[in-house]
Fold Aldolase-type TIM barrel family protein.
Amino acid sequence: MAAYRWKSFFEDEDRPEKPRRYGVTEVRGPHYSLFSQNLLQDVFESMGQFVDGLKFTGGSHSLMSKSYIKEVTDLAHKHNVYVSTGDWAEHLLRKGPSAFKEYIEECKQMGFDTIEIDVGTLGVPEETLLRYVRLIKSGGLRAKPLFAVKVNKSDIPPNGDRAFGAYVIPATRTSELVEDVGLLIRKAERCLEAGADMIMIDADDICRQADSVRADIIAKVISRLGLEKTMFEASNPNTSEWFIKQYGPRVNLNVDHSHVMNLECLRGRNLGKNHASVLGSSYFLV
């Protein structure tokens, strides 16, 4: 049992040891700047017990050599950290149906554990989306669909007909986005039924800033999908604090690697523990 001066993982504390089903902390990897192996190693060696997953944000893995990616995934696995792709699978569709199967196999060979699918960008019929989820699962990997609260207006069934699974005549695509939480939830539920392991909720329009969090939408999503099956992007420490205060340490969050220790302190602090003596008051939000 791994133990720290101020932290141990027990069921009666905030959450158990890795691998965890809840209270997952997924860190964002390279995107706007280079995320070197040295930096990753420092993060894993100093905070590895608090990091559950590593996500290659924005399809950044498509710009790296396969050998480099394999070294990164091997390093992550050494510290019991799963590795997820970013929203890149949807860019393969123009190459034809077989390209997605090849992508799954390639991800498996490079050491990825999870494939993320950006449902909004994908723009395919619901049954096709579910087929992709099943393909990922049959390939031995975890599936993590990414949903946004705003959807293309043409994706909403006409005349209020929401009997998903039935054939609906495709509508002409538009550029107009509308908010439809019900559609998000129902599609996410069908993805979970098809075998999806986690539903990622995009921060845009929901929780990009702590002072404009859509608490109503978040509450609806969690009440229908469950806390263990949903993960939210927390763009900054203030947003992370909001989630911990509202839903406790067991909420699943995707954060920047520089926010890991702050988040872990917040998870413990929510239970009445004071870790300020270890890290200093600058880690805590007032």
